[in-house]
Design a protein that fits this description.
heterodimer; A: alpha/beta; Aconitase, domain 3; Aconitase, Domain 2; 3 domains; B: alpha/beta; Aconitase, domain 4; seven-stranded mixed sheet; globular
Chain lengths: 426, 166
């Protein structure tokens, strides 16, 4: 029977053929535990008196949500998790190393055909590189760490057929937000999105990471990009093996619940307005909205290409008076590249607050928590009421380039506007 | 398995951040400390009404973060079950894994504070105040076993492994 990519991956992991609707016990290839849910994971490991994990080399603990620790309790959580990481011999990425999903990706653990689980909803990110990436709760993660297995209901797949190539100014974030607009917050429930089509070649890996990251915000279980030449080149350039990738593509006659065609050349820059990531409007609708804070970072948009886009706007410019621009690189590797390339200097000279790698104020945990009257333009994933701090705060979501232009003027701004005004000055 | 409680109706797309904001988790070390903070952004007065309640959601209940704290906090507040037209997969799994019954059912017409009777054996939910009856689809056997054991940890202690009974 012809299979979707999702069915193929889960069949391999189950050890027998499965199809959409089946409940399957599957072997996991890699597991990530972050520090919000880690304390409960170690509590359950202790309660079940676990003395060894299925394979410590396939497990990573990451301190990112509390990086560095905002409260004594968070520090105590970290102390506890450090001890458990040492006991079981798992890789611990301590404060300052970066955001969990970026670190799993940089480690080469999210590979085509792999089942990668994490105690974080944005584990869908791993689909950018052809993996079945999905979140687990803390309790079931503890059991999975012990047994190396977990269960999934095999989801139905939606074929997302990408065609064309995006116009200048349209980033992966705009593609992702467009998808959320089409689906609503719940349109992807229980489904796996499989990204295919001739337009794939025009979507680089960093944009795929942003898109796969955000599929969970329309309810999808996974969002998987078919491995192609772009995927292969990404692995090869980082010194990872890129063999056997061709096996991880759907059968031509696989059965899909729906086919969604997106012509990338039709897209325009967009913004998600308060209080839902699926409330998406054209950038032009909200241009001029005053902001108090701009935040560039997170597992959605804190990568080097995101800072390149921001620095292209910020170079030689200043952040508007009364606005704070917070920049949190998604990993130490990215932080180092900012330093080596001089981008760190561009950011700081522009008046940005350059922070250490981590999640920052995305979930209102520390380092720029929003007050009631704050209006924030953020490159993150969620703008739910109260997400970044006080319930009164208004959060707009968009691309790094728009975030940078917005920081310069203090109003939501199309970067193109700044280019135009430069021409006038010249 | 059968339970009875009053309905608290919450609507569509109730995300985990609205149930309990993640920003409280670095200050509250037990689920009980989270109880007064439940639903603070949308219904700050709800706390005392949660004991013995059956939460009634629309579509996509529990969307957003995959953390378990919302389920722990709802249980600590005395919530008996959550019924909703659909669930985010992570909330649904967490609820079952922690022994909080989560039931997917059309919830249209159920009213706030009405008494609900949920009968898992017959697969029927009744709004006792109006007589409105809803049919629920039975849970897969493994999930039912998990709920009956009180969640994944007690289940695992009992069985030593995950999987169907035989």
């Amino acid at each position: 029977m012809p299979q979707t990519l999702t069915e193929k991956i889960l069949s391999r992991a189950a050890g027998y053929p499965v199809q959409a609707g089946d409940l399957a016990m599957v072997k996991i290839d890699f597991a990530m535990v972050q520090d919000i849910n880690g304390p409960r994971v170690v509590e359950v490991l202790d309660e079940l008196q676990v003395d060894r994990l299925f394979d410590p080399e396939r497990v990573m603990f990451v301190f990112d949500h509390y990086s560095p620790e905002p409260t004594p309790l968070a520090s105590n959580f970290h102390t506890q998790m450090r001890a458990v990481a040492e006991k079981f011999g798992v890789s611990l990425r301590d404060v300052g190393a970066g955001i969990c999903h970026q670190l799993v990706v940089e480690a080469g653990a999210a590979r085509p055909g792999a089942v990668v689980v994490g105690t974080d909803s944005h584990s869908s990110t791993y689909g950018a590189l052809g993996a079945f990436g999905v979140s687990l709760g803390a309790t079931e993660m503890a059991v999975a760490l012990m047994s190396g297995e977990t269960w999934f209901k095999v989801p139905r797949s939606v074929k997302v057929n990408l065609i064309g190539s995006p116009p200048a100014g349209v980033s992966g974030k705009d593609i992702a937000l467009h998808l959320l607009k089409l689906q609503g917050e719940e349109g992807g429930l229980y489904q796996s999105f499989e990204f295919q089509g001739s337009g794939l070649a025009a979507v680089p890996v960093h944009d795929r990471l942003t898109i796969a990251n955000l599929v969970v915000d329309c309810g999808a279980k996974a969002g998987i990009f078919t491995a192609d030449e772009v995927t292969r080149a990404w692995f090869a350039s980082r010194g990872f093996s890129a063999e056997g990738f061709e096996a991880w593509r759907p059968d031509d006659d696989a059965e899909y619940q729906a086919v969604l065609t997106i012509d990338l050349s039709d897209l325009e820059p967009v913004v998600a307005v308060p209080h839902s990531p699926a409330s998406v409007v054209p950038l032009s609708n909200v241009r001029g909205t005053s902001v108090t804070t701009v935040f560039i970072g997170t597992c959605t948009n804190g990568r080097i290409e995101d800072y390149q886009a921001a620095c292209a706007v910020l170079k030689g410019r200043r952040v508007a008076p009364g606005v704070r621009l917070l920049c949190y690189p998604a990993s130490r590797d990215i932080q180092l590249e900012l330093l080596h390339t001089g981008m760190a200097q561009i950011l700081v000279e522009a008046g940005a607050v350059l922070m250490p790698p981590g999640c920052g104020p995305c979930a209102g945990l520390h380092g720029g928590v929003a007050g009631d009257d704050d209006v924030i333009f953020s490159t993150s994933s969620r703008n739910y009421r109260g997400r970044m701090g006080a319930s009164g705060a208004q959060i707009y979501l968009g691309s790094p380039a728009v975030a940078a232009a917005t920081a310069v003027t203090g109003r939501i701004t199309d970067p193109q506007e700044l280019v135009e005004s430069d021409k006038v000055v010249v | 398995m059968k339970l009875r409680g009053h309905a608290i109706c919450l609507g569509d797309n109730i995300n985990t951040g609205v149930i309990i904001s993640v920003k409280h988790l670095s200050r509250a070390s037990t689920a009980h400390e989270l109880v007064p903070l439940l639903f603070e952004a949308i219904r700050p007065e709800i706390g005392p009404q949660l004991s013995g309640a059956v939460l009634v959601g629309g579509i996509n209940f529990g969307s957003g973060s995959s953390r378990e704290h919302p389920v722990h906090a709802l249980k600590a507040a005395g919530v008996q079950a959550v019924i909703a037209a659909s669930f985010a997969r992570s909330f649904f799994r967490n609820a079952i894994n922690l022994g909080l019954p989560a039931v997917e059912v059309d919830t249209a017409g159920i009213e706030e504070f009405h008494q609900l009777e949920v009968d898992f054996d017959s697969g029927i939910i009744v709004d006792v105040d109006t007589g409105l009856t809803k049919q629920i689809s039975p849970l897969p056997p493994m999930m039912r076993d998990l709920l009956e054991a009180g969640g994944l940890v007690p289940y695992f202690k009992l069985r030593g492994r995950l999987g169907a009974k035989d």
